Amino acid sequence: MSETVLDVRDLEAGYEPGVPIVRGASITVDRGEIVVVLGPNGAGKSSFIKAIAGLVPITGGTVLLDGRDITAAPAHTMVRLGLAFVPQTENIFPLMSVEDNLKVSCGILERRDIPARIEEMYAAFPDLVRQRRTAAGNLSGGQRQMLAVARALIVHPKVLVLDEPSAGLSPKFVAMVFEMLAGIRKSGVTILLVEQNAKAALAIGDRAYVLAEGKDRHEGIASELWNDPVVAELYLGQRPSHVGKGGAA
Ligand SMILES: Nc1ncnc2c1ncn2[C@@H]1O[C@H](COP(=O)(O)OP(=O)(O)O)[C@@H](O)[C@H]1O
Ligand SMILES: [Mg+2]
Fold first, then answer.
1. Whose CA is nearest to atom 18 of ligand 1?
2. Whose CA is nearest to atom 16 of ligand 1?
3. What is the mean pLDDT of residues 124-136?
4. Taking burial as the number of CB atoms within 10 A of a residue's CB, which of 42, 140, 163, 233 is the most buried?
């Protein structure tokens, strides 16, 4: 039996009173899954996961993490509750070394466990150990995302939530990021992933939702959604590159 880790029901959220951006969106994420959220630009994907992470005011609906209601939990308590959010940008401290970036992410760990946990992150991300003394701002785009993900993973979250980790990266680093996420999932981590890069995200995902106008409009097995005509329709006006091209990237 699958076990639901994250259960988001009828979520409504927005930045200003009376202007809903997320309008009744529902998703579930089971333990060990990668769930992908796709959707056209401006669909509300970032707002949706930011609201889950406590960063956009919620006006309706519920967010349950391992059965616990975290709907009203402030953002700074999320890590302790087990939800680690990696924003699309500004997800590392560029002037600090790689190692210090990791150290400052260990707040909820027992002090005596920190050195070993940092070594575990280095073992999982060998690129980072070579650059442990480097200022994070000097890393390549792909390595930066690696560091951002390592910072989130270091505290053993119940669910890792990522906003477009491949955005703005060159193709080589895009591939690196998706390989990294597939590897993390293999190690048993549960992932909620928002992506523009639909093809690559569906290739590593288990299930996916398409969000449009702040609502979940369609849901399916990740590998089947790529050629799903409903998905193409939901992207109308702003189609992902594959639509109508028989699956070419
Ligand atoms: N900080 C903000 N303040 C007010 N409106 C915002 C803010 N961020 C996003 N929005 C609005 O919310 C809508 C959805 O944006 P967003 O969640 O970023 O969509 P997506 O991530 O799917 O591209 C857009 O209309 C956008 O203008
Ligand atoms: Mg976005």
1. 46
2. 44
3. 95
4. 163
